[in-house]
Amino acid sequence: MPSSGGGKVYYVTRKVRGGAQLGKAVKGSSKDKKGKKDGKGMTDEERRLADSINRLEMSDYLKKLAVTKKAQLKEFMEKEQKISKMNKLKIQNHWRKIMRLVKVEALRKDVEIKSQNHERDVDRKDAIIQMLDRDLEEAEEQFQMALRSHLLNVDHLIDLQDGRLLGLEDEFEKDLHALEREFSVERDKIHKQHTVEKNELLSIMRAVETQEKEREAEARQEHEQLREEIRNKNLEDINVL
């Protein structure tokens, strides 16, 4: 029975025990049958009995032979299973090695492709960075130019503002001096007018005070006269009574 494992083929041939005896028995039986056929001292009943015995012996032998063959076949199958399992493990290990080599080669190619892609990306990004750097330098130059122009304009505006402020300050000083003169004149005028009006009020107050004193003196005099008249009249009335 053949068995393949690891690229090898095994052929197993076993000798069957009792084969020689089986041949001898068969040969003996054939001789006996031949002798019986010759009719040397055997009756029909004896021949039938001998045939039955031979058949029984042959049946027992075949059963034993079948059991022996079955056991041998089972043992052979177990050995074949062990060999097949071992060969399967060897094949799996060998296949794993092959797959590892294939995978490593594929990974190397993948890494190489990714490395090339990465280098291309790096080159592309370097080019972009250089372009952006140039743009940044140009923008910086434009900014510096704009800043210088702006500072010049600011300085010019500051000069204009300073001149305008100086003009406003001069004008303010002139207006201030004019207002001070007007205020001084107006103050003197008001002071003089106040003095005049004050003197007039004092004169009026003195005149009113004099008039009030005169009226008070006249009223006091009239009061004294009236009281004297009433007193005299009362005295006359008393005298009359």
From TrEMBL:
Transmembrane segments: none annotated. Keywords: Cell projection, Cilium, Coiled coil, Cytoplasm, Cytoskeleton, Flagellum. Residues 122-149, 209-236 form a coiled coil. The keyword Coiled coil applies. Residues 21-46 are annotated as: Disordered. One of its GO terms (biological process) is cilium-dependent cell motility. One of its GO terms (cellular component) is axonemal dynein complex. It is found in: Cytoplasm, Cytoskeleton, Flagellum axoneme; Cytoplasm, Cytoskeleton, Flagellum basal body. InterPro entries: DRC1/2_N, DRC1/DRC2. Residues 68-154 form the Dynein regulatory complex protein 1/2 N-terminal domain. Its main location: cytoplasm. It comes from the Eukaryota. Component of the nexin-dynein regulatory complex (N-DRC), a key regulator of ciliary/flagellar motility which maintains the alignment and integrity of the distal axoneme and regulates microtubule sliding in motile axonemes. Plays a critical role in the assembly of N-DRC and also stabilizes the assembly of multiple inner dynein arms and radial spokes. Coassembles with DRC1 to form a central scaffold needed for assembly of the N-DRC and its attachment to the outer doublet microtubules. Belongs to the DRC2 family. This is Dynein regulatory complex subunit 2.
